[in-house]
Structure formats: C-alpha cells, structure tokens
Design goal:
single chain, alpha/beta, 3 helices, about 30% helix, flat
Length: about 180
C-alpha cells in the first residue's frame, strides 16, 4: 500500500511539472508593434519544361497559393491582413518548383501513391523600418494522394492540400518565428 501511494505521488508530481513546463502559447512571438500584414501577389517562376519531366501546368497556382496564405493569416488572427500602404509587414513569395514523387507501388509496379510539393521562396519585410525580418528559400508544403483504391483522389485535390499545408507553415514561420 505504501509503495502504491509513493508511486502515485511521483506520478502526479511528474504530471504537474510537465504541465507547468509546457511552453505552448497561442500568442504571437512577434513584437507588439507588428499588427498588420500585406501578402504580395506571388510570382510563378516554375519551369514546367525542366529536367525533361512531363510537368502538369496548374493555371493560376500563384493566385491559389497567395489566397491560401491570406486565408490562413485571417484564420490565425494574430496579424490583420490589410493593404500594402497600411501594413507593418509585407510578405513576398515566388513559386519555384512543383514536384511529384511516387511513394508506393502495386505488385505490378504501377504507382499507387504520390507525394506532391509546392516549393516557394519567401521574404518577410518590416515595411515601417525597411528591413528584412526573415528570408526562406525552398519553403515547401506537401500532400499525398492515392491514384487507385478506396482512398483515390486527384492530383489537383492533393495540390490544394499542399497549398493549405504551405500556408499553415508560412503563418507558423511568421507568428512563431520558427
């Protein structure tokens, strides 16, 4: 009985210390003076003829990526999206690559699952102080999709998921400064 109470005491103590030491917060790591952001239209610099691969051109991908980033900033709520002349921060982005890799094959060596990446270069500027806060090359969002079976979807729907993933990562990079 005494051993049971002792182990229970240490378990409760460990849980309390674990909860007290947790550093998670929903607040922004940005300075308090930074309250607004403008997301510039993304530039599409994807070379669809590179490496001799049969690339699929996705019309207005740069618009979809920008809209996903704006939607994610609106959802997050730490920065208010505004016009450029009123913004504290300005995010510039350039789409540089779209990649698709086979992940799984069937017994007949047919592709069963793919992973897609949307890769961008980003620059975050403090407009009021005219300085670059951070810059990232090769920043990626990803998704996977099955081409056959009960979980089959289209490459377009996976691309949509990859842009949403990219947008989430951009906002996390901005707000949490990771």
């Amino acid at each position: 009985m005494k051993l049971f109470l002792s182990s229970r005491f240490w378990f409760i103590t460990a849980v309390l210390f674990g909860m007290a030491g947790c550093g998670y917060t929903t607040q922004s790591a940005l300075p308090a003076r930074l309250k607004t952001i403008f997301v510039e239209p993304f530039i599409n610099s994807i070379d669809y003829t590179a490496d001799g691969d049969r690339q699929i051109y996705f019309p207005l991908l740069e618009v979809k990526v920008r809209n996903a980033v704006i939607d994610r900033f609106l959802f997050d709520g730490n920065l208010r999206v505004t016009e450029k002349d009123q913004a504290d921060l300005v995010l510039s982005g350039e789409l540089v690559r779209y990649e698709r890799y086979a992940l799984r094959y069937t017994d007949n060596d047919d592709v069963q699952e793919y992973r897609v990446h949307v890769i961008v270069n980003l620059v975050m500027k403090d407009r009021r102080h005219n300085e670059v806060l951070w810059e990232e090359s090769g920043f990626a969002g990803e998704a996977t999709y099955f081409v056959s079976g009960a979980l089959a979807t289209t490459e377009s729907s996976a691309l949509e998921e990859a842009t949403v993933d990219l947008a989430r990562r951009v906002v996390e990079r901005t707000i949490e400064n990771w």
